[in-house]
User: Which sequence fits this backbone?
């Protein structure tokens, strides 16, 4: 990709459109979607504006003009009809989950998220096992649908706002007070995007590693056996850079690892993206990014590449297979679920 | 010569494949400017006809031959972060975007040299070198974006130059596609030779006007065992400067540093009343770094300085590599003088500019970037000021540039230590240089580029 793939080039194009120098067309749409919105450019170039917000607004305006990519349109349609980006049947959302609807407790709601529910049931099952082991009194939402972050990122704001309003109303009607998330995208949507769009979010919002930190502190979980392998941690963009949560997953890892966490050179606010967000519209580019990230993990001699984001897991695993590497890609909660027992 | 644009496009597509020839207006927009503030009403005046993205020297050669055949201007482009308009396509033509030329051809761990294609960025090369226990040591403000070819062609400056020199100091050999399409190897890939005229020097800072650098062999250094920095605040800039000069005179082998003034005080570090600041970076073996650090620390304390936390010093030290990437160029509307005058005259020059010259044109210095100079063997003095985005201000800005060159000449200096000529200073060259020097430069340009197709209108104007 040429200079138009950089923040500088894209911003120049946006400016030229706003100043009437060029007309938006299909080529412009191709350029608009050629970005992972990972936000790393904001970190490298200390500016007073957020390039990812510019990209989001750019896509929103293009969608409103009827200019988007077919792949983006299909995702939007899938979310509109089936409540998930894949277009898989609504009623099959929780079919691969461990005891999904047995729990009717009132302490909190576990918001599973589309990627986890449809593609990575083991991540949800690990979370459920953790909750059950700690004796938590929780519930799932039978009518759970997409958090709509993909819609916002792809520029389908009108549809997103309708769906978000409905989702928030359902949660309110259910009497939910607290929500625990294991997907950083969903967590970000509730914590950052909904309030920014003017929605009231009257729930306590907790990320799974924060919740686990609390369980560990209160002694509700016992670590039966520590993990001996060397573990590198990958910061998901939406949890790290976008929400500033770097320590919580590391704290959980520290409690279950025998040795220190292996840090990749590009970590925390400078973490390299896994590629999944751009993979929605340009899968081959997403994969290329993931391969670079996995190579970085391999170069640390880590045996496990841990993260806490279902999207990251899918792309990192894809890259691992492509590279034929023996490194294991796992979620933090999955690692935890393998070594815990009931605490006090 | 009038040539059908479609025909040229076809021929370019035969050289680099369709994917790498850009001609749609939307794809050309990102190639209109660099950091230089072109006249605001003319921001969309200069479009290239094509952007071509070659990946080999042979492709570059074919592109140049085509340009010669049709007498089309060529604008070689690396990261596009220069401040002087060097890659603004003022005559249209073909922008040759070299950023696909990313091969690291050889790393010689014994001889400490590396051979790379021109489009590798400084950061990418350093990352690769680190795996071999080596470093290039060139941390420019555009570290993440600048390419090797661009850094050489602009005679770039890095913050660690006290230890590693400028990139130009480390050029061992170059491969250049000349404006007639021939491929020149300047000299053997050796650390020095006294046999030929120094052809490397001809292309260092040539701004793409004498040919396209396609490959470079550069001297590299052992990756330091230890890196450390020290930062301190002082009551005044003068106090900080006095300590800086003492450190320099003592002959300590620090790798870089700066002396800085913030007229608004260093509030962010909890010292609103302190206006002077010093930063010194060290790297090398653990033992030497520790000794150098302690020596400098003692000198700072004796000079009335308050030493800041190590983390602050480190952030300031590595912060230089992030002072500007590409996106800054979208912001425009400010400029900076990077003058080189004898160190004892730098402050007087800056004072003259800030107190007498800028107000005359209605411009104002950025107070948080007060007087400053780089505490290295290349002590660049800087003044940063704002320009409002109007044509009227832009005209004043041109007058200011001309007056500044006149003043810097009186101080025995040069107007641009490391940001080059481009179109920013091209019309003022005759102020700074003698008729003989200008004539020689013109003769060199004409000899190498008889049709004036290689980045015309930049660096030196030929008749």
Assistant:
């Amino acid at each position: 990709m040429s200079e138009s793939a950089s923040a500088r080039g894209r911003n120049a194009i946006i400016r030229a459109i706003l100043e009437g120098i060029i007309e938006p067309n299909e080529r412009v749409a191709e350029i608009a979607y050629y970005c992972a919105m990972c936000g790393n450019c904001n970190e490298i170039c200390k500016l007073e504006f957020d390039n990812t917000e510019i990209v989001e607004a750019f896509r929103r305006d293009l969608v409103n003009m009827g200019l988007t990519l077919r792949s983006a349109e299909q995702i939007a349609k899938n979310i509109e009809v089936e409540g998930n980006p894949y277009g898989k049947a609504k009623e099959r959302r929780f079919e691969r989950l461990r005891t999904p609807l047995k729990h009717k407790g009132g302490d909190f709601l576990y918001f599973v998220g589309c990627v986890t529910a449809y593609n990575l049931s083991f991540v949800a099952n690990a979370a459920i096992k953790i909750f059950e082991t700690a004796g938590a009194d929780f519930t799932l939402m039978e009518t759970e649908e997409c958090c709509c972050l993909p819609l916002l990122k792809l520029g389908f704001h009108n549809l997103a706002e309708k769906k978000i309003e409905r989702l928030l109303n359902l949660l309110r009607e259910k009497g939910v007070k607290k929500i625990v998330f294991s997907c950083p995208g969903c967590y970000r949507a509730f914590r950052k995007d909904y309030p920014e769009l003017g929605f009231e979010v009257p729930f306590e919002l907790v990320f799974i590693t924060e919740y686990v930190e609390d369980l560990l502190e209160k002694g509700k979980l016992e670590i039966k056996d520590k993990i001996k392998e060397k573990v590198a941690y990958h910061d998901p963009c939406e949890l790290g850079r976008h929400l500033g949560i770097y320590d919580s997953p590391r704290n959980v890892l520290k409690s279950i690892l025998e040795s220190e966490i292996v840090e990749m050179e590009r970590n925390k606010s400078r973490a390299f993206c896994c590629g999944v967000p751009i993979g929605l519209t340009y899968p081959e580019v997403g994969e290329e990014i993931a391969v670079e990230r996995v190579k970085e993990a391999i170069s640390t001699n880590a045996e496990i590449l841990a993260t806490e984001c279902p999207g990251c897991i899918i792309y990192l695993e894809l890259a691992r297979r492509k590279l034929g590497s023996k490194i294991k890609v796992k979620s933090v909660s999955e690692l935890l679920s393998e070594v815990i027992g009931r605490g006090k | 010569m009038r040539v059908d644009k479609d025909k040229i496009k076809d021929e370019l597509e035969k050289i680099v494949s369709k994917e790498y020839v850009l001609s749609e207006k939307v794809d050309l927009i990102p190639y209109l400017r660099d950091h230089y503030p072109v006249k605001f009403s003319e921001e969309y005046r200069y479009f290239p006809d094509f952007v071509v993205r070659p990946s080999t020297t042979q492709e570059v050669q074919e592109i140049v031959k085509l340009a010669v055949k049709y007498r089309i201007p060529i604008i070689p482009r690396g990261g596009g972060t220069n401040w002087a308009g060097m890659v603004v396509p003022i005559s249209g033509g073909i922008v040759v975007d070299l950023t696909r030329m990313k091969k690291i051809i050889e790393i010689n761990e014994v001889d400490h040299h590396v051979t790379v294609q021109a489009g590798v960025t400084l950061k990418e090369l350093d990352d690769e070198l680190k795996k071999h226990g080596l470093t290039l040591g060139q941390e420019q403000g555009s570290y993440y974006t600048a390419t090797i070819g661009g850094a050489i062609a602009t005679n770039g400056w890095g913050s660690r130059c006290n230890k590693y020199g400028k990139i130009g100091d480390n050029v061992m050999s170059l491969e250049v596609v000349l404006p007639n399409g021939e491929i020149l190897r300047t000299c053997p890939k050796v650390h020095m030779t006294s046999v030929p005229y120094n052809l490397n020097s001809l292309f260092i800072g040539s701004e793409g006007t004498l040919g396209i650098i396609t490959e470079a062999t550069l001297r590299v250094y052992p990756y330091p065992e230890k890196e450390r920095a020290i930062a301190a605040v002082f009551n005044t800039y003068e106090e900080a400067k006095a300590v800086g000069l003492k450190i320099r005179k003592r002959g300590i082998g620090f790798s870089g540093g700066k002396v800085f003034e913030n007229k608004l005080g260093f509030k962010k570090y909890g010292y609103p009343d302190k206006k002077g600041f010093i930063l010194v970076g060290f790297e090398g073996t653990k033992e030497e770094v520790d000794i150098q650090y302690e020596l400098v620390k003692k000198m700072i304390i004796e000079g009335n300085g308050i030493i800041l936390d190590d983390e602050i010093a480190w952030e300031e030290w590595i912060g230089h590599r992030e002072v500007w990437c590409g996106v800054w160029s979208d912001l425009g509307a400010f400029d900076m003088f990077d003058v080189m005058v004898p160190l004892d005259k730098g402050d007087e020059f800056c004072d003259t500019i800030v107190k007498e010259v800028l107000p005359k044109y209605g411009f104002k210095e950025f107070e948080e970037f007060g007087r400053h100079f780089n505490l290295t063997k290349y002590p660049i003095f800087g003044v940063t000021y704002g320009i409002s985005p109007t044509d009227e201000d832009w005209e004043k800005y041109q007058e200011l540039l001309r007056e500044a060159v006149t003043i810097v000449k009186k101080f025995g200096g040069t107007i641009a230590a490391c940001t080059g000529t481009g179109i920013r200073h091209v019309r003022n060259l005759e102020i700074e240089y003698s008729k003989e020097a200008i004539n020689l430069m013109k003769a060199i340009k004409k000899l190498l580029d008889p049709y004036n197709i290689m980045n015309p209108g930049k660096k030196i104007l030929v008749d």
